[in-house]
Amino acid sequence: MTIDARLTALAAALPPIASLFDAEPGRLAALSFDVAGVHFDFAKLSVSADVFAALHDLAVETGVAGWRTKLFDGAIVNPSERRAATHVAERGMGNAVDNAAAAAGQDAIRAMVEALRSEDVKDVIHIGIGGSALGPALLVDALGRDGDGPAIHIVANIDGEALARALAVCDPRRTRIIIVSKTFGTTETMTNADTALAWLAAAGVADPRGCCIAVTAAPAKAQAWGAGAVLPFAETVGGRYSLWSAVGLPLALRCGWAVWAALHAGAAAMDAHFRDAPAAANVPLLAGLCDVWAARYQRQAVRGVFAYDERLRLLPAFLQQLEMESNGKRVTRDGSPVSGPTAAVTWGGTGTDAQHAVFQLLHQGTVVGPVEFVAVKTPGHDLPPTHQRQLLANCFAQGAALMRGRSYPEALEICNGDPSLAAAKTFPGNRPSATLLLDRLDATTLGALLAFYEHRTFVAAVAMEINPFDQMGVELGKEMATAVLAGGDTGFDASTAALMRKALG
User: Fold this and answer.
1) Does the pLDDT value for residue 489 go beyond 70?
2) Which partner for 312 in 39, 230, 307, 351 could form a disulfide, CB atoms 3.0-4.6 Å apart?
3) Where does a domain end: 222, 255, 288?
């Protein structure tokens, strides 16, 4: 029997999650891990020991270990673009040549940080889109509250409202603009940059472009444009993996170099774990294989991520790009159609807010998929401890309730025999979840957490034999938008043509 057939058969006959604790006495110990300040509990996922054995065989068959070696060696892992993926080198974990190049870039970042933090700069407007904004926004929102550097304003959307809100609270004479574009030609980013330049000029700033820091893999273009400073990053660092490069400059400006260095150190610790830990205890490997199991073999098309810490409220949005842009593919590396589902739809929110909004669907809805809870043991505030106790109690209770549910007889008993009310209060249970518990949220643990998600996404891609480092689907919409802006409605469907005439003239 093939591994694919084994996994398909196991999915059809999987026991309830609760029963696995009795059938596998060592389950909790085998599926609980502590790495780089993060505790991982995978015990409530609907994965048996037999499934894990088959998944490990799948990892061997698809060459996960070999592709992991390629990643760390700086070999080509993005075949459609004939590129390596060198984000690990930004943490000093790639090959010697890539590490040296990344270290030079980090030295330039440090010089920029020290210079700007010594100047009279009150605000920094960071203009980018996609990975050029999601990563920096997450970092600053999670860690920047206590920073003593300039205030950071992240602008991504081409909707002028986004930029207008940032400009409204900034003093143009004490503001610097960061422009992040890998090609230094991204339409939305450059349009926002042009408007920000006009704002500076209107306020009497003599050299608006001199107030700009360009972060790009096309430094010659940025220099020709006239940026006051240029911080390059490697062409082999993809946008959704780029926060470790100069793209993450806002965090370093806000919080200082020590925090920036700690972020990288935490990621490097997770890198070393992923590279060196044995398969049975390798958390990115296990998580990535479980993602394949849920999406491909259990046909669970969604994966929820809920952050039980306000400082991680942007984590679900960050993961949406990381996971769906990486693994939302329909062909394998060689261009053949995939043999089954690839990335699930990543969605989520913040606990406990989400409990009063979307958790109804999680507990009783007809759409089932794994749920991930991300919590922090030590709060980041000094308010009464009842806040943190209630927060964590709710987090842990949700996972328990998803698995246990409530039977109809139990519901009937608490409803005084009312059958319709009992039906409404019945919960099917057997709904999978995992919990990630950070000792505390600081730069080191956040770095480790984000690197875990990167490697997990990579493992899932390799096991499905797809390329996680290109994003061809992003380009089609851009091409069509360019055609719309060029004018004329010929070549478009009737609906689109009518909308163009109605709104664009």
Assistant:
1) no
2) 307
3) 255
Same domain, 216 and 358: no
Angle at 265 between CA 259 and CA 266, to 5 degrees: 95
Query: What is the domain-level CATH number for residue 53?
Result: 3.40.50.10490
Interval 85-95: pLDDT, tens: 999 999 999 99
pTM, entire model: 0.96
- Helix/strand/coil (H/E/C) assignment for every residue in 85-151: CCHHHHHCCCCHHHHHHHHHHHHHHHHHHHHHHCCCCCEEEEECCCHHHHHHHHHHHHHHHHCCCCE
Give how many domains the chain has, as a whole number: 3
* Among 233-237, 346-350, 473-477, the least confident range: 473-477
Amino acid identity at 310: E
Bridge-based pairing state of the strands 433-438 and 38-41: antiparallel
β-strand 175-180 against 302-308: which pairing, if any? Answer: unpaired
Nearest-angstrom CA–CA distance, 25 and 67: 34
Helices 257-276, 283-292: axis angle to 10 degrees equals: 70
* Ramachandran assignment for 270, one of left (phi > 0), alpha (psi -120 to 50 degrees), beta (any other): alpha
Residues with catalytic function: 325, 356, 478
pLDDT band at 473 (very low <50, low <70, confident <90, very high): confident
From the number of C-beta atoms within 10 Å of its C-beta (0-12, 13-18, 19+), residue 269 rates as buried
Which pair of tokens denotes residue 97?
């040549």
CA angle 492, 498, 504 (to 5 degrees): 95
Token digits for 352? 């406990």
Residue 236 maps to a domain: yes
Q: Domain span at residue 477?
A: 472-504
Residue 235 CA: distances (Å) to CA of 245, 272, 396:
11, 24, 42
Structure tokens at 198: 């006009």
Lookup: tokens for 351? 């606990």
3-state secondary structure of 50: helix
Cis peptide leading into residue 352 (ω within 30°): yes
Report d(CA 256, CA 115) in Å as an integer: 11
Dihedral sign from CA coordinates of 199, 246, 71, 452? negative
Residue 85 lies in a domain: no
Q: Give 111's Cβ-side CA count (13 Å radius).
A: 10
Amino acid type, 299: R
